[in-house]
Write a structure and sequence with these properties.
3% helix; 9-stranded antiparallel beta sheet; 16 strands; 7-stranded mixed beta sheet; mainly beta; 223 residues
Length: 223
């Protein structure tokens, strides 16, 4: 994810590492002007460059209602930003595609439609999840603490690699709250390539009392 990205207006924006002041270790990143500290329990990141940020408690919202995701795809990423509402719905107010700057595209002018993501009101219902990585606390009664989560993976490496194809067309995105039958609510931020039908989605699952229980990165395909 670290690098320079084209943005509308013939300019670029960098995603930068933030180093510890007392040493050489990476403390976090700065993206779109927002500092994301790896010590923040609400900031969950994955090995492909995808990350998600949001409250660990929907009742207090950790004094910050911001919910974010950056979905990494080859050469691009989908950036989503919204706010949690009092009724546990999500209001999305910023979604666009970043195009990574390379030697071949460094001086290329990209027009506004190159950054557009068409937003739908809901995620497609026919997604086959073929690979997912998720983290959760070992006990459902434990308060969320990222350093203590248990990581699990479902699906094989070959499926994961096949689902990381370079996109071939426009994106459709979604940012939504999905209530579950057990009183839980899933906050879903995802996108689909309209040509390949490949999907990538971050799902933040909260209990009936608003506690963060699981964060998952799901890769799939429209069936």
């Amino acid at each position: 994810i670290i690098g320079s990205y084209h943005i509308p207006g013939e300019s670029k924006e960098d995603v930068e590492e933030v180093m510890r002041s007392c040493g050489g270790a990476v403390q976090g990143i700065r993206d779109n002007g927002i500092y994301l500290n790896r010590a923040d329990d609400g900031f969950v990141y994955f090995d492909c460059g995808t990350y998600s940020y949001g409250p660990t408690d929907l009742e207090t919202k950790d004094d910050d209602p911001l919910v974010m995701a950056s979905l990494a795809v080859p050469g691009e990423r989908i950036y989503m930003e919204g706010e949690m509402e009092e009724d546990r719905s999500i209001l999305g107010d910023l979604v666009f595609k970043y195009v990574k700057a390379t030697p071949d595209t460094e001086n290329v002018t990209l027009y506004s439609d190159a950054f557009e993501v068409e937003m739908g009101f809901a995620a497609p219902v026919s997604i086959d999840v073929l690979h997912q990585i998720y983290c959760e606390m070992p006990s459902s009664s434990s308060s969320w603490m990222l350093q203590r989560v248990k990581w699990e993976q479902e699906g094989d490496q070959q499926s994961k690699e096949l689902l990381e194809k370079k996109p071939q067309g426009p994106y459709l995105g979604w940012m939504m709250a999905s209530p579950q039958s057990d009183g839980f609510v899933d906050i879903r931020l995802g996108s689909i390539c309209s040509v390949t039908g490949l999907t990538k989605e971050v799902v933040r699952s909260y209990s009936d009392d608003g506690k963060l229980m699981r964060v998952a990165l799901k890769r799939g395909k429209i069936s």
